Amino acid sequence: MRRRTRPAQELRAAIDRLPLEVRQAMLEGIDRRPIIAGAHTGRGGGACPLVAADLKWQGMSRERYELALDMALAWDRYTETVAGARRVSPRQLLALRSMIEASILGETTISLQEAVADHQQAVARRRPARKRADTGERSRVRELIGRPGWAWTRPVRSYAEYEAALGMLADCGSVEAARALAEV
Hints:
mainly alpha, two-stranded antiparallel ribbon, single chain
């Protein structure tokens, strides 16, 4: 026995089959007019998503007309409209907008390299490149890398050693204690 698809899946599939320019026009139409279900137009200026798109229906091909009809029927099934026109709920309108946007984004993909280049250009526009001031400091890594125990920021290796070093300095309070600590 074949399972029937859920209304949301059916609506999303119908939206995906529409041409890109129709989906973009529907998205713009949702912003301009109140959206209804159950009829093409309703009282108070409401319209179904396809009518709100303000497309030229007269010269439309038979195939495109059937796609639009499938979308309209899927929209009515999704909104559970049986008879008469009614305004859709904010949740239903948000779902329709999300489905249309996802369908448009799914078709207009860009490569990772293009996205990285766009991001780098945006960062460069926001923040002008600054030249670093020369402080005169030079890296001594090559010179010191062979010395055992050498590291730029590691006079001690653990917090316990740090506490012991502080204790030794507090006990002695002299330069000799600091030298002894440096040899450890």
